[in-house]
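Table S2 (continued). Query chain:
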Amino acid sequence: MDAGTYDLVASKAGFLNTTKAGMTIAANQTLTGVNFKLFRPSFFQGTVTQKGTGTPIAGALVEAIKGGVTVASTLTAGDGSYSLQVTKGLYTLRASKTGFKTKSKLDQTIGDGATKTVNIALPLP
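Corresponding output:
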C-alpha cells in the first residue's frame, strides 16, 4: 500500500458501518491495534400530534440529540409519524413546527438494535 492518510471502514451485514478517519500509514507499514465497535441500528419512532386534540402534525421537525449534538433528524409524514435511526445511548428527542411550542422528551434511552416508540404532543403557543 502506498504511504498516505486513509479512512478505514469496518462493515458487517446487519450492522452500521464504523469509520476511523485520517489514519496515517507509512510505505510498507503494517497497521495493527485498530479496533472497531459495530452497532446494530436502533430506531425511535412515534407520532407528533397537537396537544389536547390529538390531531397529527405533518411536517414537524423531529431531532435526536446526543451530548448536545443533533445526530439524526426528520420531518413527520402526513399522518404525523416519524422514524429516526440512531445507535444505542441516551438521547433528547425534540419536536418543533411553526405555530406550535417546541417540545423535548429528555433522557430517552435506547438499546443496541432496539425500536422505541416516543409520541410527542406539541402545545399551541
